[in-house]
Each structure stands twice: as structure tokens, then as C-alpha cells.
Amino acid sequence: MIINIAVIKGDGIGPEIIDGAIDVLKKVEEYYGHRFLFKEVLAGGSAIDVTGEPLPKETIQVCKECDAVLLGAVGGPKWDHLSGELRPEKALLSLREELGLYANLRPAVLYESLKGASPLRDELLSNGIDICVVRELTGGIYFGEKGRNQKGKLGEAAYDVEIYSVGEVERIAKVAFEIAAKRKGKVTSIDKANVLESSRLWRSVVTNVAKQYVDIELEHMYVDNAAMQLIRDPNQFDVIVTSNMFGDILSDEASMITGSIGMLPSASLGYGSKGMYEPIHGSAPDISGKNIANPIATILSAAMMLRHSFKLEEEANSIEKAVEAVLREGYRTADITSAGMKLVGTKEMTKLIINKLGVMS
Ligand SMILES: NC(=O)C1=CN([C@@H]2O[C@H](COP(=O)(O)OP(=O)(O)OC[C@H]3O[C@@H](n4cnc5c(N)ncnc54)[C@H](O)[C@@H]3O)[C@@H](O)[C@H]2O)C=CC1
Ligand SMILES: CC(C)CC(=O)C(=O)O
Ligand SMILES: [Mg+2]
């Protein structure tokens, strides 16, 4: 059976990290006898440069036709002067919406051998960190009405509307409860219900959905407290469910306590098996083209693709075990290195992981 994968390399470090993930997938293909067909399409800044638009129609069509999408990252200073609708980031938002990918899973796991890369004290890490952030991905303030050139209290004003409907909150809450049922059985719903009406609706809907999951513990937490609690005692969290913007911000924070933003993968899912898989970080223009970016978040995103879209659990596990083994042997990219470790570049890290595949399965 041929599995079709749309590939969007994107901008900045996007091409370097995607090339690494594709090499890993090619090794999986060879080792397990699968057939992956990679179809490269443009989105983001690189698409603007070639076609004048961030998300060409052809890209949307190919992504819809394929079984999954693998994406690097989009954006960079070169395109920062463009208006909102024409920016590279708009491609990503539109693609998530076009493909109906409303649930973004961002697992933040601390690898035993990476404790030294976490900025937290050892005593806070003794029980490890294993949090699954479930971020709502096609609603909220990133998709609400926006406006510019308004007359404000003190001159020109702009606005972005945070809006959630019951159905949008219900479906993301269900995803979170289903995931928690297969983990430690706790959901922390994060909002700002002491201030925002949309958060009060969020909180009441999540509370209602919880009635269908009597074995799951539900806790509500305000987002400002949550940002603090993640640092104070990350082990208190199992599954976090939250809005688009809060999830975007809190998952970057969660990534750092597990060592680096270069470690966190993500899966964006909808109703079917199709998904989009991408690291949680951006295009990191400050380090692009230098062979120093950490490819692990993207490689682990490819593993999530094998698991969630193609049900290839053993293959996904073999990639995750290979990553773990390479880290255990002390190899580190610059973002996660510390004294006594073996510093390697993007390509070398990818090669080390590929060499472990098969050996580790
Ligand atoms: N999913 C996407 O395509 C996203 C795109 N962006 C875009 O990326 C551009 C840069 O945004 P920033 O705010 O700087 O966020 P960023 O995530 O690209 O970078 C933040 C910091 O983390 C470092 N970093 C990120 N990924 C890394 C990796 N794999 N290995 C080692 N270090 C890594 C960068 O060097 C930088 O110092 C912007 O244009 C932004 O809009 C930002 C977030 C997500
Ligand atoms: C549209 C993206 C740039 C938003 C983001 O930062 C993310 O999805 O992580
Ligand atoms: Mg982000």
C-alpha cells in the first residue's frame, strides 16, 4: 500500500529539519517494507517568494489528497512587513482550518538523560515530566474577527476577538478526556474565567463534558496560575486542555522545562485519520542554515504521524526509542548540550538516530 505524505519544508530551519525527518522515514520505509510517497508543496514565505501568496491553491489540494502532512515551520523577518492576510503564518492557520484540524496534541516529555538540559532543579524532576497539552487549534482569538484603523481611547486602535462556541469546546474537551483515560486520568482545563466571558463558556462546557467521564479527575485553573504552576511543580499535570492562544504559549513553556523547544513534536488532528505533523517551534531564523538546529522535534512529529494517521505503532515506537538511545549515549545538539556531552549538528544528530533505527526495534 502506498502512503501519500504532503511535505511542506517552509522557511528558516524548516528545510534542514524536514530533510532529517524524511531521511528517518525513508529508513523506516526500507526496514519495515512500507511505501511512502512524498509530495513536496510550498507554503509560507517560500510560497510567497515563488507565487506571491502564502498558501497556493495547489498546496491545499495536495494536502487534502494526501494521507498526512509533514510541515517544518513558516515565517521570518523577510516577510514581517506584510499585512496579516499575506504573511507566511496565515498559511499555517488556513491549512489547519481547511483540513479541519481542531485538536493539537503537544506531548511534553522529559527524557531521563535530558534532565541536565532542563532549567528546573533536580528535585522538581525526580518524578519526570509527562504532560500532554491538548490545544484547540481552529478557533479562539487566532480566528476571530479582527480589525485595524479603529478609533481608540488614545489614538488608532486594533482588535482581535476571542470567540468560542459550545460545539468547539465540547469536541476538544472530549479529545482531552479520551487521552486522559489512557494516561493518568487527570485533565486540567486552563482558562481565564475570572475575566473573560469566552472562558466562562469554556469552563461550563468542559464541566458538562466531564459528566461523561466519571473516572477522570477534572481541575480548572486560571492561565496565569498555570504558567507559574508549570515551573513550580510540572508533575501535577497529566493532560492540559486549553484554547488556541493559551495552548500556543503554555506549550512553548512546557517544552523548555523538558530541555528545549527543539524537542517537542505535535500532531494536529480532526475527525478522520488525516493529520498535520510539525514541531511546536518556529522557523528559528537566528540559527537557520548553520546545521545547528535540533531536528528531534520534527523527527518525533514524524513518529506521531506514523502512530496517529497510519496506525504504525511499532514503527513510531522504534523512532522514539532510537531518539532516546542517542540521547542516552550523550549526543546533543547545541540547544540541549551541557558539560561532558558530545556536541553534534543537525545532520549528525539525524544520522545517529537513523543508525539506531532497526537496532532499537
Ligand atoms: N509552526 C510554525 O511554523 C511557527 C512559526 N513561527 C514563526 O517563526 C519565526 C521565528 O519565531 P520565534 O518567535 O523566534 O520562534 P522560534 O520557535 O522560531 O524560535 C525561538 C527560539 O528557539 C530557538 N529554536 C527554535 N527551534 C529550534 C530548534 N529546532 N533547535 C534549536 N533551537 C531552536 C530559536 O533559535 C530561537 O532562539 C517567526 O516568523 C514566527 O512567526 C513561530 C512559531 C511557530
Ligand atoms: C500560526 C503560528 C505561527 C502559531 C504558533 O506559534 C504555533 O502554532 O505554534
Ligand atoms: Mg507557537
UniProtKB/TrEMBL annotation:
It is found in: Cytoplasm. The keyword Cell cycle does not apply. InterPro entries: IsoCit/isopropylmalate_DH_CS, IsoPropMal-DH-like_dom, Isopropylmalate_DH. One of its GO terms (biological process) is L-leucine biosynthetic process. Its EC number is 1.1.1.85. GO terms for cellular component: cytosol. Its cofactor is Mg(2+); Mn(2+). Catalyzes the oxidation of 3-carboxy-2-hydroxy-4-methylpentanoate (3-isopropylmalate) to 3-carboxy-4-methyl-2-oxopentanoate. The product decarboxylates to 4-methyl-2 oxopentanoate. This is 3-isopropylmalate dehydrogenase.
